[in-house]
Amino acid sequence: MTVKTFTAKDMNDAMRLVRQQLGPNASITQSREVRRSGVLGWIRPGNRIEVTATSQPPAARSRRAYKSKRGSSAGQPGEAAPPGRTQPPAAARRRQDQGNGDRSVSQTARDDLRQKLINLQSVVRKMSDNAIDTTSLNLPGGLGQIGTQLAAAEVPSRYARELMDCLCDAVPEAERDDIDKMTDRLVQIVAQRLPTCDGIQYTAGQRRVVALVGPAGVGKTTMIAKLAAEYHLRLKRRVGLITADNFRVAAVDQLRTFADIIDVPLNVVTTPREMRAAIQQLQDCELVLIDTPGRSPEDDIKLQELKSILADAEPDEVHLVQSCVSAESHWRRCFERFSAVGLTALMLTKMDEAVPAGYLAPILTRAQIPVSYISDGQVVPDDVQTADPLQLAKRLLETPRA
Fold it and tell me: Which of 329, 327, 340, 259 is CA-nearest to residue 295?
């Protein structure tokens, strides 16, 4: 029988190590949580598990103990009973054997129950990883307040721990009581991780064709109106609009009314051929903005149609428009599926509705495309700004008002 001790991040990982080194019949005899060293130990104490395992299954251990007990009390088979004692009747021996067997089964059941409890603890621990529990922490200096701030902003715990590690490396221990300095440094750390760009890469005297794509209901048409007003009314550029969103009559009417108000041309297209013609008609414009119909990231056919229309438009930039109140899984699918149309940037809408917005920090950090614009309201054209990394970081770390 082989006995070994393993240390792993959770029970599932520990069980995998046990099976690899001791075989599929191995069983765990003891387990306990151990504290991680360093700053991670401050933030998440006891988040590693240590287990002791044996190569024998629980039932085998019970049978071995049972045989050992019988051998010590009654002698080996075929031996005479000790002097002064007589062998028990057959019925009594059967009852005795049955009792020992029941005890073996009971031990196996207890082992199984203990393993199930350990697995349950692992599941609960994973569920708690979605947020930082700061109520039981005793972090030195201003780290405790920073941890509370990250938790209130709903920054995912794993990303928050990364930020705390970077903060400890960047701020000397003697300065960690200055909460304002710590907060400013935290914002800088987050900002350095966020990919951004200065909006549409416009060059005076050259036409720029920009297409907006994304799921339905994220605010593409409103964003088109804001950008058109910004470039035509404020920057005095010649702007032309194209909409391929003929699936929603209200969207076409909304954009046509707006185009009439600010006096810019609008072309409605339904086919790739009409798209080519519309692009040709707007050749004198300095900026051409294309509104596309909302497409589900799960609809392969509609995404292929969108790719075909954009191929004939030959846009210089393709911006994915995404709502800040979308679920994390939806973000991942949109990045994955809309990348086929040649994404160059990301526009964030409904930022004013996403408070707290800390869950977006790791999503935007991992994004392969930069954030170009942020929209936080319905007012045209005021409620839109080019993405500034410091300002965006502050928004992501903002906590709800009491």
Answer: 340
Walk across the sheet containing 345-349 and list its strands.
Answer: 266-268, 239-243, 287-291, 208-213, 317-323, 345-349, 371-375, 384-386
**In percent, how much of the chain has pLDDT > 90?**
47
Quick: pLDDT tens for 331-348. Answer: 999 999 999 999 999 999
d(CA 243, CA 224): 10
Question: What's CA 125's distance to the chain center, in Å?
Answer: 17
Q: Which CATH architecture has domain 208-396?
A: 3-Layer(aba) Sandwich (3.40)
Cα 78 to Cα 32, 92, 98, 101: the distances in Å are: 45, 18, 21, 22
Amino acid in position 401 = R
Return d(Cα 170, Cα 95) in angstroms, integer: 72
Dist. CA 101–CA 106, nearest whole Å: 9
| Cα–Cα nearest to 50, from 140, 129, 118, 146 | 118
**How do the domains of the chain map onto residue ranges?**
3-68+96-128, 143-193, 208-396
